Amino acid sequence: QVQLVESGGGLVQAGGSLRLSCAASGGTFSNYAMAWFRQAPGKEREFVVAISGSGSGTSTANSVEGRFTISRDNAKRTVYLEMNSLKPEDTAVYYCAALIGGWNRKSIRDYHYWGQGTQVTVSS
Fold this sequence. Notes:
four-stranded antiparallel β-sheet
C-alpha cells in the first residue's frame, strides 16, 4: 500500500511561485510513475504534469508548459511541483498520484494511489 501526503500549498499573488511536495510511504518508490493533478471548484480533476519512475521522462499539460516543473528525489521518496508565474486560473486543490506500471498517463483512472490534496490559491 502506498500513502501520499502533499504539502506546500498556500495563498500567493499572481506572478508568484510555490513549490509543492508529495512524500510517499510504502512500496518501492522508484517503481512508481508520479503525477500532479488539480481540481478547481466546479470543475473536473485535470492532469498537470507527470514523471517517470527514474525521473528521466516528464510530461506537461499545455496550460502550464514553461511555468510548472515536476521533479523527484527517489532517495527521499518525494516528488515536487515547482510552480512559477502563477495565475488566478491556477487556483485549485492539487493532488499527487502514483501509477504502477507505465507512465505518461493523463487519465485519473490510470492512477492507483492518491494523496489528500493541498490547496493553492492565486490572488489577482
